[in-house]
Design goal:
The chain is of the alpha/beta class and 547 residues long. 45% of the residues lie in helices and 18% in strands. It is extended, with a radius of gyration of 31 Å. InterPro entries: DNA_bind_recomb_sf (IPR038109), DNA_bind_recombinase_dom (IPR011109), Recombinase_CS (IPR006118), Resolv_N (IPR006119), Resolvase-like_N_sf (IPR036162), SSR_resolvase (IPR050639), Zn_ribbon_recom_dom (IPR025827).
Amino acid sequence: MINFADTSQTKDVVIYARVSSDDQQERETIQNQIEFAEKYCELHKMNIVGWYKDDGVTGTIGLDQRDEGNRLLEDAKTGNYKTVLIYNMKRLGRKARVTLDAIYQLEEHGVKIKSMTEPFDTGDPMGRFIITVLAGQAEFDRDTLLDTLWHGANRHARLGKWLGGIVPYGYRVNDERFLEVNEDPLPGKEGMSEADVIRLIYNLIADQKMSTIKVADYLNALKIPPSYVIHGRQIKKGKRKENTAGVWSPGRIRNMIVNTTYMGVHEYGKRATRVRETIIRDVASIVSVETWEMARQVLRDNQIEAFRNQTRFYILRGLIKCGCCGLTYHGGAFKGSKGKPQAYYLCGGKTIYKGPLQGKCYSKNIPCEWIEDLVWKECVRFIQNPGAALKELEQGMILRKSNTADYLQEREMLMKGLKDKEPERQSILSLYRQKMIKATDVEVQLQDILLETTTLERRLKELGSLMEAEKDISYQFDSAELLLNELKAKIQGDPSYETKREVVKTLVQEIIVETIEPLEGGRKKAVVNVRYSFSKAKGVIHTGKDS
């Protein structure tokens, strides 16, 4: 036991206090910790030189992610104090890893941690041993309710109750936690309710065959507020929350059309990333099944029609990036001087729907025939006479294969990590069945596992995209010379679109379009930088073509 009652000299200390919203519900306030610390330091002749108070902050995030916790670490780096007092181990963290990380971060700068209610001091080996036990116990304390809540949630879901999350537009949750149709007037639109907006959307698409873009523009023109505006919700960007643009988007309209809730069928657990039962329950419908099916069919018909209307193939599809906004260029057509359609590559920032008040990218459009002809001729020139550039192609092939090997290794690691998540979940449930942890903590632990699983699956999807982007015919050959022989055979005669696409994808790494303002004034100019696999330098091409 550490003797804190040694009063031979006054010791300078700082106090770190923290409570979460859950702690506050249990009548544990930060003021209780402050009063306890004041009496404790008075009793043990300690001089408080600083306070660090994280009020309403969860203990599941790292110390450096909390406002006052981060300030505590920054002051430790400057040597402002050497001892920090905490009420108990749970103040540092509710998870063993978080707690031990916090202790390590503080001890790195020569700071000792002492608990005012527990027998440990990180200044000696026994104290460090005890702290690992207490850290594990703190994690156990928050892991005991989850199994009960898990089964309880499923039971309530089968009864049709709403268990949280964003309520679908057009509905509200009544006092008994059931979804009901929201017929209350919209703010500023007394003659229309959220449910009326849903009926209008389905009518415009199912009966009038309008596209989602036209519906979004129509709702924005009517100044009908979307859900985020009505309820004042914000989205998180970095560490801050910001208001949304407050406009309807085609993607949002589409999501409403395919949502089965509006025809009276809600699927609970459908979005879960882990394996779990999907519970189908009946809810109040806003539109009929027939209307819902008709609207879905219109969306499918529009998609098929858009595909059929594509009259030109774009060889450089996916390879051109905008130097202004970073988005990818895609193909499009406009009427030329003689009324004939002219094909261009245009930045996605000029066409992606951001609402009527959002600005569009100012980048220049690039004529398809001009850029495709230029890049194709450069690729053919290299294939027919590679010269010293052959070594650059060889190195590029090696680099691509190396990247793919790294991606495969990371994918294997991710797959293993995902496979381990189910045993982790079962272990937590097993601890609860043995009455070693609480149900509330079980819920938090399972939520952590869900978050970790989602993160792993997102990265797995990103790796798939990266690996797909690296794929080309160069992987079929062990040397650049063999690849070059294959490419020579492919460009003979009049190669098809697919052949040209394959060759270009193999030899072109990326194309960056910069849009610049001429110093002498006048129209903007596009500077096209083409990066080839067979050249270290970027080929800079100035275009005087008009968009």
